[in-house]
Design goal:
The chain is α+β, with helices and mostly antiparallel strands and 624 residues long. The chain folds into 2 domains: 351 residues, no CATH class; 232 residues, no CATH class. Helices cover 52% and strands 13% of the residues. The chain is built from 21 helices and 15 strands. The strands form 4 sheets. It has a 5-stranded mixed beta sheet. Strands 8-15-10-13 form a 4-stranded antiparallel beta sheet. Keywords: Membrane, Transmembrane, Transmembrane helix. This is Transmembrane protein.
Length: 624
Amino acid sequence: MAVIAAVIFWPQPSVDPSVGLDPSWQAGLALARIDHIAWGRELVFTYGPLGFLRTSAYYSFEQSLLATICQVIIIAALFLGIAAALRLRHSPLTSLVGAFVLTGILTVLHLGHGLAFRGFSSLEMMYPELAVLAAFVWASVPLLQREPKRSTVFTTCAVLGAVAGFQLLMKFNTGLAIMVIALATSVLLGWKAVGRHCATVAAFAVSTLIWWVLAGQRPGDLPSWLRGSAAIASGYTDGMATAPLPQWALPSVVLSLAWMGGLCVMFVRGGHEIPRRYLVLVVLASLIAGKAAFGRFEPWHFAILVGVIVVALAITPWPRARRRTLVVIALAVALVVVVDLGGIPALSDRGVLAMQAPVQAVDRIVTFASPGHVQQKIEQAKARQRALYGIPDRFIKTIGSSTVHVDPHEISAVWAYDLAWRPTLVFQTYQALTPMLDALNGESLTNGPEFVLSRLSPASPAVGIDGRLGVQESPLYSRALLCNYTLSGIENRWALFRHTAPHCGPLTKLSEASMREDHAVPIPAPSAPDRAVLVGIDLDQTFADRYFHGKIAPLSTFTLVVDGVTYRLIAKNAAEPFLVNTPASVADTNLQIHAHTIGVGRTVNLNEPSVTARLRFYEMRVGP
């Protein structure tokens, strides 16, 4: 029954690799597996060496086969967990039917619109988040029992700890989430059971190491990957938060607050039917999902929290007196989902995919039966991508078999053109949101590939995601590209850089200036045509700036104003001098900028004083 449910509720909207930001990092995860790239030493991302298991697209036969097995197991585990929870108070048939329906609802909810090129290719199943939901359901089973067996509790916690280790290497934050759920379950079922707590942690650690080695990685590289992933997660909190929240997020905020308030009221009132320890787990799971939902608010991220709410409503043993309230909550959730996911058209898209899932599953099984069919699909997808990218033939011939890095994020081009990929440590620069990660990226580029293939921004100066100024989000990476590469050519919105000897002088300080919000400061002009001008910004941050730009709640964020144009400022990297005036040697590339004034501000003022900062201007010689 579980396998049947997994096959039926297994939407595969993106079996053909697409282009765009999200499909490109998915391609990067697959390429890391195909090219045996060392994680931690050569690559760091929010995903790990098992991250390729989350995508349904065909990048290679091995990758797509292993991903298929993993995805079916995740959906089956979710189905079985729901059935086990429902079985505590319902008949076997009712439990199976309920689990079947709930699994279908949850898989449809966890279809996310990533930043893909167009169409259904942007609907990608969030399998790591489904795994967290499955862990929550399985943890709920002993918590809902009056007197669970010690052996059952021990097994549940240890298995969840082991699953967390596997999941950590698939997607970093979801592995930590499952580990928190596992340890919380152990504590809630007896805080004095220190042996069980230690066994849960040990299962997590051992599982992480075993799967790391099975993924073809060296044990010595694991600490580096953990540090890098933790740094990305830290930078993501402030650098990627949607701040302020859009107006249409209001229903989601109201529903979330009402849900958390309702859980707290039930906990305080207590009750015979609903154990308080179970309510604590629901609150914990809701907080974890809420952080994912509002850390970077997007409809498909909020669906993660909705999934927790839907499951909790279904498996909680509600007393008869509260069933009318349950219906009201369910209707409110349904209404918010319809609004946040884009209305009826968006729901119909998901409905179509859900109905197509069984046919797609059969087609996938038939395709795997003949490896030649997989390779045929791969070659067809590569041809489509080459037509979309249109990289000049002379660039491809120049690169040949030499190593190449693609920036800012079109990694799919490496796969489509069969290039020799040698990425920077954080292979999509928009994720290098801390000084440590930016420094590692700059160092790996300096000592890195023979070529850098750059997709040109339609705007000048180049603009990254979320309206960032391209040269500011990764200052050291930009300087490494300017100082260790020369421009070979520009054509069809692509620029090719070739690695050379270092050709930049040291930074020479020009001046300092204090500034206040809404008061632009003039940028010194370069003293010669071969000089670049840079600026470092020392922000005076308030308590609200430190904790309400995403860390606790995404209420505001810093902005950078260059020549009257407002960009999002990556605050953690602001102190590192970044380019504000570049020489003619990088004209028409993403490095080009000729700014005259600069200022800072906030998107929303939370009853705070105006932003103040200290600007440090530098000049740097750039040789040929």
